[in-house]
Amino acid sequence: MNRKSVLLILLIVMGCWAQTNARQVIFPKETAIKYYISEQDNPIVQTALKLFGSDLHAVLGTSLEKSELASSQLIIQTLSPKGKDTLTKKPQGFRIEEKEGKLYVTGADAAGTAYGIMELSRLLGVSPWVWWADNTPARINQWIIPDSFRTEQSPAVAYRGIFINDEGNGFSPWSWKTCDPSSIQGRIGPKTHEKVFELLLRLRANVFWPAMHTCSVPFFLTPGNQEMADRYGILIGTSHCEPMLRSTNGEWKKGGVGEYNYITNKDNVYRFWEERVKETAQSHNYFTLGMRGIHDTGMEGVEGIEQQRSALQQVINDQRELIRKYVNKDVTKVRQVFIPYKEVLDIYNAGLDVPDDVTLMWCDDNYGYIKHLPDATERRRKGGNGVYYHFSYWGRPQSQVWLPSTCPALAQTELARAYQHGIQDLWVFNVGDIKPNEYLMEYGLEMAWNKEVLTNCDSNIFTEQWLKREFGEELGRKLVPVWNTYYDLSYQRRAELLGHTRIEETDSKYKIISDLPWTDDEVQAWLNRCIQMEATVLSLRQEVDEAHKAHWFELVEYPCLSFTAMARKMLVAQLARHGKATWDEALQGHTDIYRLTNEYHQLLDGKWNHMMGFWKGHSMYKEVDTTRHCPPILAPALKNSYTLTPKDGKADAHSHIVNRLGYSNCALAFEKGDSFTTEIPPSTDSLKITFAFVPNHPVDAKKLEVCIDIEGTHSHYLQYETYGRSEEWKLNIERNQALRTITVPSSTKKRTLKVTATTPAVILDEIKIVE
User: Fold this and answer.
1) Which of 25, 197, 224, 763 has its CA 20 to 30 A from that of 413?
2) What are phi and psi of 101, to 5 degrees?
């Protein structure tokens, strides 16, 4: 045998040796995957296996085949709580790793194992939105897990979930008319809830607050709903006005006796709660303590803060006795939450004694700005702290229930600060009907799971990753600026606010579509941004394959084009009232909103029919009044005006830029005592300087304050906190800016301007200077 032949044989042998000793795991298509599982009795693990098996069939055309340990490529195991593995100290955590040519999924507990199994689906290329946003996964020839692959994950927040709310125009009719047809109006049954719970499992969430309005049948009154939650490992809780797992709004008229008043009708109210506690004693749910009115109103039968505090204290004591009697004699071992929402916060601050083992759940102001963060004493509570956060809301000054509109960077800023203040036990997001809040819902839940995502001040990183996962590398990258434009526009004016109306106001002027406080030029410039966004979306649509047309329409086209249609309707109407445009485009905008909604409802043979309904009785959804005319808004005669952003100066080291936050897209979050310094140019006249702040609420202080120092002038101390639902708070919410203006004399030279935060939580957006 010659030398070349020997060398060839040697190379072949070495190649075979390398293949057999390669540590990557390969799962070919149409070949059953043999797996071994050490713990399969828990319902959530069984459910996760079933979902993963379905995903395997969709992507590889294969199935799972249970086998013995030695012959299995996939090993699934749940650790004993008494084991020495460090993962056991991370509840709900999991580890996935390649070892010696096998793939191991290890859970700290049953929930962790289930989340680990669902992570396999992600690695396989299956989006959590495979059903809810129709992201059809691509078929592949083989699934490869690389050599030495390893990921270990556990939640940042112990309990994470969503609240279905204001369901009357979307979720509820879609459920009982389309998803889970029923002759019972408003019935949201187990088939619908199964799809919700599947989504929550895929998103690693474990808490669900069911829909609670009178338009829908209460969760516990529909057989099979609780059992479905148990199958998916979902804990059922209830909102701030639904104590003891009772949907008071929908159930009192059916099962209550007399008035829902604990002062005058205590026995009947007590029995009302007692029935539900007995029914759910074995389901390991989350009991909400306290009492408000039947629906989002103050407690009945009490007047004055002291009487309210005394009555609420008795309510909590009695509710705890019910839990002790029917659920666990050691009441401290049962999950309970108290939610100081709206007027209840004042009662809590008046000295209400909430037991130490009860979670305190703090709330935002319904528009993304958290109103209270726990102090040092509250952070030490055994029951910990939670947050109830809105991505959807119906109420004053104007609703945000139609299109997604919460700025992602704002959510990250507020939730990261909440986490740093010890809010790490329970996060619930009001997501309305789920659709079209898909992106915001996942971002919120991902921050609750992944501390790295939570603490990253650049929300654009998550945005880009999410868009690439949903639409592929190339198209996802092109969508990032579209996404940013959409949320920039929504931050400056939500779609529902473009008609300058309000709800829950006694003044009739807020019921009529009227002009925004913008000049004609400002209106046209803003409208042009919307139209450019629309053009980009329509251009990119050509790159979407047929299998993903519905997916694209749901996540991108409908929100972006509907927002633009509303802008056309309202802003062109504003110009037309001034004689600066014809009414045709405004009328077309109205038509387009309904056309787009009808198209949504016809997708996939009507899968989403009724889901995107909206408040048709509201003035902003009616055709514009073409008979109204107004004098033009005149722009003031200005010598000079310009805007400075945090990038136009220098900040102290402890402060940081929040990317994509504010009109500036680079808002500056101050540490107390830090300063921002910039320069203002010479002027021949006095200057009006307006400081625009992100309108959050005070933290660790009772005010938000800055000191303004400008060379040659005295110091100016500006405070901009708001209280309750004041007129200033409403204006701040409408424009997402808190404004304070000072006037300084002219100067022939440049001057240094310094802004110093004298309190925590100050966030500067921009500085507007007018000569």
Assistant:
1) 197
2) 80, 10
Write down the pLDDT at residue 4: 45
Cα–Cα dist 764/754, whole Å: 12
Of the candidates 748, 745, 741, 750, which has an alpha carbon nearest to the alpha carbon of residue 768? Answer: 741
Handedness of CA 151, 477, 645, 688 (dihedral sign): negative
Tell me the C-alpha distance between 567 and 493, whole Å: 10
392: CB partners within 8 A, 6+ apart: 165, 166, 400, 401, 430, 431, 432, 433, 437
Nearest to 470 by CA among 150, 701, 134, 722: 134
Alpha-carbon distance of 335 to 357, in angstroms, equals 8
Residues of the chain with pLDDT under 50: 1, 3-21
> Please, which residues have CB within 8 angstroms of residue 567's CB and are 6 or more apart in sequence?
489, 495, 498, 526, 527, 530, 589
Question: Is the sign of the CA dihedral 619, 625, 628, 631 positive or negative?
Answer: positive
Q: 239 — alpha (psi -120 to 50), left (phi > 0) or beta?
A: beta
CA distances from 291 to 301, 315, 558 (A): 12, 7, 39
Place of tokens 């104590």: 243
Provide the pLDDT for residue 575: 94
The length of the chain in residues reads 771
CB distance 340 to 372 below 8 Å = yes
Report helix, strand or coil for 427. strand
Residue-wise burial string across 22-59, b where 16 or more C-beta atoms lie within 10 A, e elsewhere: eeebebeeeeebebbbeeeebebbebbbebbbbbbebb
Measure the CA angle with vertex 681, ends 677 and 684; round to 5°.
140
Q: Which helix (H) or strand (E) holds 389?
A: strand 385-390
**Residues 341, 363 contacting (CB under 8 angstroms):** yes
Determine which helix (DSSP H) or strand (DSSP E) holds 519, and give its type and residue range.
none
485-503 confidence digits (pLDDT tens) = 999 999 999 999 999 999 8
- Quick one: DSSP state of residue 568? I
3-state secondary structure 156-180: CCCEEEEEECCHHHCHHHHHHHHHC
- Contact, 691 vs 767, CB < 8 A? yes
